[in-house]
Amino acid sequence: MSGGPGRLPTGGSIDRDRPLWFLFDGKRYQGFAGDTLASALLANGVRIVGRSFKWHRPRGILASGCEEPNAIVDIGQADRPTPNLKATQIELFDGLRARSVNCWPSARFDVFGLLDLLSRFTPAGFYYKTFMWPRWHWFEPAIRRAAGLGRAPRLADPDRYDERHEHCDVLVIGAGPAGLAAALAAMRAGARVLLAEERATLGGALCWEEQHIDDRAALDWVRDAAAELRSSPSARVLTGTTAFGAYDHQLIALRESRPRGSPASARERLWHIRARAVILATGAIERPLVFPGNDLPGVMLCSAALSYVVQYAVRPGERAVLVTCCDSAYLAAEALRARGITIAAIIDQRSDPGPVAAAAQACNIPILSGHAVASVYGSRSIRAVECRPLAPGARSFAAGAPRRFRCDLLCVSGGWTPTAHLFSQSRGRLRYAPELAAWVPEQSSAPAGLRCAGAVSGSLSLDECLSDGFAAGRAAAQASGATGRSGAIPRAPAQPVRVSAFWSSPPRGRKRAWVDLQNDVTRADLQLAVRENLRSIEHIKRYTTAGMAVDQGKTSNMNALGLIADLTERSVAELGTTTFRPPYDPVTLGALAGRRLGAFYHPLRRTPVDRWHAEHGAVLQDFGGWLRPAWYARESRSREECIRLEKRAARTRVSLFDGSPLGKIEVRGPDAAVFLNRMYYNEMRSLAPGRVRYGVMLSEHGIVIDDGVCMRLGEEHFLVSTTSGAAGRIFATFEDWLQCEWPDLEVLVTNVTPAWGNIAVAGPQARELIQRLGTDIDLAGQAFAHLSVRTGTLCAVPVRIARVGFTGELSFEINIAAGFTAALWEELMRQGHGLDVAPIGVDALQELRTEKGFLHVGTDTDGCTLPADIGMGAVLSRKTDDFVGRRSLERTDARRTDRLHFVGLASEDPRLVLPIGAHVLANASSPTESHGYVTSSCHSEALGRSVALGLVSGGRSRLGQSVAIFSQGEIYPARIVAPAAYDPEGARAHA
Q1: 742-786: pLDDT as tens digits
Q2: Domains of the chain, residue spans
Q3: Residue 299: beta bridge partners?
Q4: Separation CA 670–CA 668 (nearest Å)
Q5: 361, 598, 661, 885: least CB-packed within 10 angstroms?
Q6: Going by CATH, does the domain composed of 161-285+418-479 fall within 3.40.440.10?
Q7: Does this chain's domain 1-156 share its CATH topology with 161-285+418-479?
Q8: Is the CATH number of domain 663-753 3.30.70.1400?
Q9: Alpha helices (H) along 680-789
């Protein structure tokens, strides 16, 4: 089996004994195991593999790795595709179905290709001006439908995704010559090494560059190095693994992809790697050249052509012309010629190619030095290329007859751009290296433990890559504490690579030259941006969208920088670079989500009494990440009736509320009181043992972030109660301040929320119900006052009981070990049968606290609420110690009298329940001037009228003032009142 008309009869690292069949745009083709989809398409003579984003121009394969901007495909079934994958990164498997994106009906014939005829009317930034009149929103739906490339799947993803955390001494990213040398040196020295390579095979460019290491074929050295690493117990090798992000504290994120069709349990795995030392051996990406018609199918990077012809035994063309300003193109010319491809000419923009041209001259290959491409001929693929001599300075063509060469393959090489993305993400600085015409990492700016080696650091020759990598691996191992010997440095013949800065052929008329192939950004677009007076590279990037495509500018950014520097008469160093942001290469949402899907996407925690709730009609809902009873359904009664009965039980008899989700954080140590005094807005050092105090916590900006009670159980022992959804967040905040700001404090903080259940017994008969169970705690009012906490036993089980509550009635909160909570709940229900005890849900509790005027953080506050806004401003003048957020409370803005205050709102119609979210107006005749809004509202059976709470501008100074409540076009008259509508003196809670 030949595997296609472009397949060479011998060679390559493919397995010709394993033919594979696949579909592309509905047509059946054959490839071999070891192929990528890109190499298989080229082998089958497929030239057009995609369409450009804006003008739908035909595009062919340009590169062979993640830098590919053109060959973007969807794979899988039509209703369950995996969108926007690069054909160069897809390992071929039997039965693969692929379809080109951004075209209809196919890439070969795309109806939308007619848009190219309108290109004169859609230059860069046209949408910023064209669609502003008469209204942007008229055009927005159509523009959003046109945006994007692939099709999002409609069915659930059947694949599994894993996540893993790993630690190592040395992480090596990239398994080219520098990466392999670094991993070998570190491993031999005794360090624990993890080597990550984004391609399926190790060796990087050695897989297609026919070179020698230690007097033998480079591929033999690669095989031996790989075998040594894989057999070592202190090394792990990950192939098909891309390092896509570098984050704080030496955290590197990797995405490992398994070949599709393989029996692997998880198709992708997300790795979180923390290493003592990180070596970036990420190599460099070859740059294309900018000239008219450089986007036609058949234009390919020299390194890509070399890769396809050597590694995959694919002939990407029959007759090639090479265009370059870099020595490495001559290596590609030699390999292509050796495999039967005719080299029509080498066009070198340099006036003196140097000694690298000797081999080509010996083979009678025409070398046109000091020339550049002036025109490319062809419509759907390249047919010929015309070049002209360059004038001194290379800003225009010199006089002279053009030379025209017939070809179906145009290989280009504009030099090499170091892959410094991860280095920049780690806050390292880049410097412009004129000798390479590229930005390279400035090692002195690298964070501790991060090293660059090989081409990423500007070392382009093989011998330099090997020595750089070996030295970096040895140094990283020593820094991590390894003391072994790394052995001898691998050596290769010294072959310097010279590069000349050449960004673009001189412009000729209206012919378009592409800078960003995927986003259809031309040289003229950059010129327009400069004419529009844009000077910052970040502004020009966004105006033209250069470098904003799927490839994130890997093949376009450097050319764009060089052109803009010339257009603005600045040097590239003065212009600077755009910002490198993660991910380096697109990451699937499945990999980021892992197994957090369905019920695991937002797993709800369940209280110890969950089964009882479900068996007794509780309507369970998500409250702060906990599955809790909203209300208890009763036969033939509506929700409102059920909630009313629950409230009645709490006000007139006795109720039970499952408060187990309330945050419970133990704070212990000699400095516990000092620490909590700094974390709370309220004074906590004066809190006596056995007493409880309500308090609020602030952010550094003085904003109320949580409230609750703090119990002092002993001189050095406190229990902090938080709202249900804030337990983890407040615990993390405590740890952050202790570890980063006050490490000298002797304090231990422990989140014990899951260890303790909480049952709130509230109502006039609450004391009697608890006494029926038998307890050694004196519950009498004189012995157990409101806001006190006692420890003892209940039903012979150790408990902690606090006299606090959220209902405004006599309340006891019982904290008991989680394992006993359900049994205690059931015993309370049995003993309370004669007292008409009733369980209540969150909805009833919220209405009870609204009647009482109790604040609920997050409902009655917003992201700007300060303590003074909720009536706690006097605390600031009494508390002399510093605390989190204090400085922010001294700002002028915090002292404004027109801030939103927490107040009550009473409707003039007592039967009307004011709509939550309705705006408060000072004057019904001007509904556009809002003075606040309603935050909580309900009907109170105990009061016989509706009650409401809200945030109103200057509300506390306007008590008694009439206002209008505006909602959905309706106006409701109301008054501003004090928040507490029910039992404002608090006599019932102190009974």
Answers
A1: 999 999 999 999 999 999 999 999 999 999 999 999 999 899 999
A2: 1-156, 161-285+418-479, 288-414, 510-570, 605-661+755-848, 663-753, 861-977
A3: 410
A4: 7
A5: 598
A6: no
A7: no
A8: yes
A9: 727-740, 766-773
CB 440 within 8 A of CB 573: no
Q: Which pLDDT score, from 0 to 100, does residue 1 have?
A: 56
CA dist 36 and 21 (Å) reads: 12
CATH superfamily of 288-414: FAD/NAD(P)-binding domain (3.50.50.60)
pLDDT value of residue 826: 97
Tokens matching residue 966 = 């505006």
- Taking each continuous run of H as one helix and of E as one strand, the counts in the chain are 23, 50
Residue 307: in which H helix or E strand, if any? helix 302-311
Fold type of domain 1-156: Ubiquitin-like (UB roll) (3.10.20)
Among the CATH numbers 3.20.20.70, 2.60.40.1120, 2.30.42.60, 1.10.10.1100, which is that of 510-570?
Answer: 1.10.10.1100
For residue range 13-69, list pLDDT tens digits in order. 999 999 999 999 999 999 999 999 999 999 999 999 999 988 899 999 999 999 999
Which listed CATH number (3.30.1360.120, 3.40.190.10, 3.40.80.10, 3.30.40.10) goes with 605-661+755-848?
3.30.1360.120
Average pLDDT per consecutive 10 residues, the chain (991 residues; last block may be shorter): 84 94 95 96 96 92 95 86 92 93 90 86 78 77 76 85 95 97 96 96 94 93 96 96 93 90 77 96 96 95 97 96 95 94 95 88 91 93 95 85 94 96 95 95 92 95 96 95 89 89 87 92 94 92 90 92 94 92 92 89 93 96 95 93 97 97 97 97 96 97 96 97 95 96 96 97 97 94 95 96 95 97 97 95 97 96 96 92 95 94 96 96 81 97 96 96 93 96 94 86
Please spell the DSSP secondary structure of 808-842, one letter per residue: SSSEEEEEEEHHHHHHHHHHHHHHTGGGT-EE--H
Dig out the tokens for 618 from the structure.
């509780």
The CA distance from 768 to 713, in Å, is 25
* Under 8 Å between Cβ of 926 and 968: no
Residue tagged 């509508």 (tokens): 981
- DSSP letter for 536, please: S
Scan for tokens 């059920």, then name that residue: 642
What are the CA-CA distances from residue 403 to residues 368, 375, 797 (Å)?
A: 9, 10, 98
